[in-house]
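Below is just one:
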Amino acid sequence: MCYYISLAVHSDIDHQAHQILSSHLELQPNRNRSFRALVPYTFRTYFLTTEICSCELYEKTENQIYGFRADVQHYFNRLAKYTKNIFVHIHFYRGDIEKETLPVTSSQNIGLHQMLTTQMDQDCFYQILLDEK
């Protein structure tokens, strides 16, 4: 049972999304059908992790995510050079990460700066607008 950050990037930048990862981060394939159903078919879906899960990538309270680690922030800033948007969903998995149905409490469109500087709600489906200032 762990937190996982589900991430979707446009298939056009799939190679770059892997190339710019720091040595402490991994993109693992995300085959969860409920997450796939949330994003356009032209996007590839991943879990952003530290080999095993995403628990150490940010500070959190019971339901809110407060800030990403510096290397995660750097990764998102670098992604912004290649694409205009990504999708993010943070969930505490209690079962099989491939099969568990993801709850979505709300959906929001936010800019990259807002994502990096404000708290994020668990189980909210975010479209992150990377080119927005």
The beta strands are 2-10, 26-29, 43-49, 58-60, 64-68, 85-93, 106-111, 120-121, 124-129. Helices lie at 14-19, 33-36, 70-79, 112-117. Residues 2-129 form one domain.
